[in-house]
Design goal:
Layout lengths: L45 E3 L3 E4 H4 L9 E5 L19 E8 L7 E10 L3 E7 L11 E8 L7 E7 L1 H5 L5 E8 L10 E10 L21 E8 L2 E8 L6 E4 L6 E6 L5 E10 L12 E10 L6 E5 L21 E11 L4 E11 L5 E12 L9 E4 L1 E6 L4 E6 L6 E6 L8 E5 L3 E6 L5 E11 L6 E9 L2 E10 L5 E7 L5 E7 L5 E7 L5 E3 L8 E9 L2 E7 L1
Antiparallel strand pairs: 1-4, 2-3, 3-10, 4-9, 5-8, 5-10, 6-7, 6-9, 11-12, 12-13, 14-15, 15-16, 16-17, 18-19, 19-20, 20-21, 22-23, 23-24, 24-25, 26-27, 27-28, 28-29, 30-31, 31-32, 32-33, 34-35
């Protein structure tokens, strides 16, 4: 066996990140890994290739997830002391521990917390072979990922069931993290690992009871869009799902993405309709998909259309071409997402694409615009190009997702500036859907993790919370392995809770609540037809009013 070096691995020139916190349920099953937090000096672990420990008392507490020590890989990974494998290669680095899985295990959950940066590739196994996975010897490959990842500590977790569980039951195996010989390793690459757990249980995120602060009593309704067949109607209901009341049917029974005004007295929605509007073309095929922005009173009345997209008709369908003539596609323009920039202004994206007679869609562009929350007949000015999903704080700062020529990621622009210039905050494109908190300083994003979901073609999503004043210190507040994916985050007025949409593999979705401080979460709706949420931006009788699209 190869033991970890006694010397500590010290980091220089590494960005310091906050240690994330995450609630740990009481009464967890026994951990089959010994010294999973490396607090005993890793005496139960084996390693080679300059695997080491990092000491929080020397390098800072941000370099461990919990306690004093964490394992450090990727740094100076050179294969020293690593054995030659049967294929005559020598891994660059290995960290492993032997364990035994009970023959009657109903499920096995493997998890650890990690932080990573720069470039190398990592493989993880529960394998019979000493140093690498061989399907003929039993065990499973847990996953692979590259270490070019966003900042902060995050959870890796996978649950073995079905065939994968059958391959590990009753087996003595090695939990192994391996950097293979052919994995390129940049000089500044690193992977920190802490709190390793292998338990005989299914430990996916579970629902908690609705907290008293969110129980419905008629004073804190949700605004909900309920999907009924092909229609989407806006309703009001309490946070416990009761007292459902119809608010708005929409221009054509298809309402999307509502947001409350800063004073909580109005609701802006994306209203799917057609162009030309309101008088349709006598020829039905000339009526193209489009959308409007409608502003309603909080009770659903007083609706006012404040902006309308104008799609453009292409060649007549069915298109019968003649030599030298090509079909001209229709240009479809729609608003997808919007936010209040102030009490009198909205910021929103306009997404466009080309559509041919056979239904083929090509191209695609999107820009973010600013317009009055009152009726306007002029095309709104552009705030950011090649940009979607704007969210604004009370200081006029707009976060958005950017794609195209500039670096993909989360960008910011100050809309109130005389010369707004976008600034890249979080590169990489692994984090999306930014949403400002009511304090105007924090914001939440959805992160694609490296953990596999129940669908092997996908990854588990998580919710991370950033402080705008220190982007190197994000905190993971939700690991969403209780569904297919997460979207449509909304903050409570006091910033203590989030509402989010949890999508399932069967195309159903519901609204869940999330308590920021504890990580506790649970469903608000349970009928599978809710798909977005927006929390009222002010409180009534000291109770918080979310608004949900369903």
């Amino acid at each position: 066996m190869y033991r970890l070096p006694a010397s500590l691995v010290l980091f220089t020139g590494v960005i310091l990140f906050l240690v994330a916190t995450f609630s740990i349920a009481q009464g967890q099953p026994q951990n089959l890994i010994q010294d999973g937090g490396f607090e005993q000096g890793a005496i139960n672990w084996a390693g080679c290739g300059n695997v080491g420990l990092v000491d929080a008392q020397v390098s800072g507490s941000e370099f461990v997830y919990a306690g004093r020590y964490a394992a450090a890989l990727g740094i100076n990974a050179d294969g020293s002391d690593c054995p030659q494998l049967p294929n005559l290669t020598t891994p660059k680095q290995i960290l492993q521990q032997q364990l035994s899985i009970p023959a009657n295990a109903p499920a096995v959950t493997v998890s650890f917390w990690y932080r990573a940066a720069a470039g190398t590739a990592v493989d993880m196994f529960l394998a019979r072979g000493l140093y690498q996975f061989d399907p003929n010897l039993g065990g499973v490959k847990l996953g692979s990922f590259v270490t070019d990842l966003p900042p902060g500590w995050q959870l890796y977790r996978t649950v073995l069931i079905g065939e994968n569980l059958d391959r590990v039951r009753g087996q003595t195996l090695f939990f192994s993290i391996v950097i293979q010989s052919d994995a390129p390793t940049e000089e500044t690459a690193y992977l920190l690992v802490d709190d390793v757990r292998v338990v005989v249980a299914d430990q996916r995120t579970r629902a908690s009871p609705l907290p008293p602060a969110l129980r419905g009593d008629g004073s804190r309704p949700l605004a909900v869009i309920r999907r009924e067949g092909d229609s989407r109607f806006l309703y009001r209901m309490d946070t416990d799902g009761g007292n459902r009341t119809l608010l708005y049917r929409g221009l054509l029974n298809n309402v999307r993405n509502p947001v409350w005004s800063p004073d909580g007295q109005r609701i802006a929605v994306v209203d799917y309709n057609t162009w030309p509007w309101p008088v349709p073309d006598p020829d039905p095929q000339n009526n193209l998909p489009a959308s409007a922005i409608t502003v309603l009173n909080a009770n659903g009345g007083g609706g006012q259309q404040v902006f309308q997209t104008q799609s453009r008709k292409g060649s007549r369908c069915p298109f019968v071409g003649v030599p030298g003539q090509s079909e001209v596609p229709s240009q479809i323009l729609r608003v997808n997402h919007l936010a209040w920039l102030s009490a009198d202004q909205l910021v929103f994206d306009i997404v466009g694409f080309n559509q041919f007679c056979n239904g083929q869609v090509t191209g695609g562009a999107a820009n973010i615009h600013v317009a009055s929350a009152r009726s306007t007949t002029t095309f709104p000015p552009t705030l950011a190009a090649a940009a979607v999903r704007p969210t604004a704080n009370r200081n006029g700062r707009v976060l958005f997702e950017h794609f195209g020529e500039r670096t993909s990621g989360i960008w910011e622009v100050v809309a109130t500036s005389s010369s707004p210039t976008p600034e890249l905050l979080l590169p990489g494109g692994r984090e999306t859907q930014p949403v400002w908190s009511p304090d105007g300083r924090r914001f939440a994003v959805v992160r694609d993790t490296v953990s596999p979901s129940a669908d092997a073609s996908e990854r588990v999503t998580a919710i991370m919370v950033y402080d705008r004043d220190n982007l190197a210190l994000p905190r993971q507040v939700l690991f969403a392995d209780h569904g297919r994916s997460v979207r449509s985050i909304s903050w409570s007025p006091n910033g203590a809770y989030l509402a989010y949409t949890l999508e399932q593999a069967n195309d159903q979705s519901d609204i869940w609540w999330l308590e920021i401080a504890s990580g506790a979460t649970g469903p608000i709706t349970t009928d599978g037809v809710s798909f977005a949420a927006s929390w009222r931006s002010v409180s009534v009788l000291s109770v918080y009013l979310p608004m949900v699209i369903r």
